[in-house]
């Protein structure tokens, strides 16, 4: 999914100054630099747009403009020109009989607005996309288009330099008061915790929870040494029974234990999950299906063992 997000950004983005396309490898490197975390159960395009916002804080990158053509009756030309002017868009206009044809470069986010505008105010009008992504190259062959490298924003560099130049001892009086207040609050909490520990009886040790905690800590350390960023695994949306012990409302999966989904969309997405596919294979082999908790424990142990093996091999 990390690669899919990078491919989408490479298709939609350009360097805002040179108007050149940006390579997939450059975008991948930038995504790793800002430590962008991929969420497995979210839409890829939505994550790509969220990633673009984070990249724009540090790098010179933006969405490429598209070239459109709008044809309207000549008696509606005034309304159309006012709309262009309100959005600050420069156009080229020409007349063709009783129609006026406008050609313009727009941000992709404005495309839907123009569609709605024509539908509401000029139903006779028509909108066509001439060029999906406008880049500053006369060639369109992907192997010959000049690619731009991602550059760090000047204002981002200035902010980082200012942080380095600022001495640590120039804190304001308010900041110092806040720190003193936090320190006092922390001391009170520690004293309160000490008293409560003396009064409360000792709880029995949950050995299963302790095993999971140790396993998760080892996994985090190993993956951290390998430079792999962990992403929280998706959880089942609902269980078969609610808090009152009654049957939960929704669509139940006939293969996976304790899996009920309140909407059909979430139910359909469940069929593509690793949990469902794993249980289907077990069902074909005549084995009982696993709960989501048991499945995640197996996957976690497998990934841990694989990471240890790869680390010993020097991968």
Short account of what is shown:
By secondary structure, the protein is an alpha+beta fold. The protein has helices at residues 2-12, 24-33, 44-58, 77-86, 111-121, 154-165, 173-199, 207-226, 264-270, 274-284, 292-313; strands spanning 13-14, 21-22, 62-63, 66-73, 91-96, 99-106, 126-131, 147-148, 251-252, 260-261.
Largest sheet: 4 strands, antiparallel
Structural class: alpha+beta
Instruction: Indicate the low-confidence ranges by residue numbers.
Output: 138-146, 228-235, 237-243
Mean pLDDT: 75
* Strand and helix order: HEEHHEEHEEHEEHHHEEHHH
Describe this structure in words.
The longest helix is centred in the middle third of the chain and has 27 residues, at 173-199. The chain is 50% helix and 13% strand. Mean pLDDT is 75; it is low at 138-146, 228-235 and 237-243. The strands form 4 sheets. A 4-stranded antiparallel sheet has the order 5-6-4-7, with helices on one face. It has 315 residues and is α+β, with helices and mostly antiparallel strands.
Task: Label this structure with key terms.
extended; 4-stranded antiparallel β-sheet; 50% helix; alpha+beta; 315 residues; two-stranded antiparallel ribbon
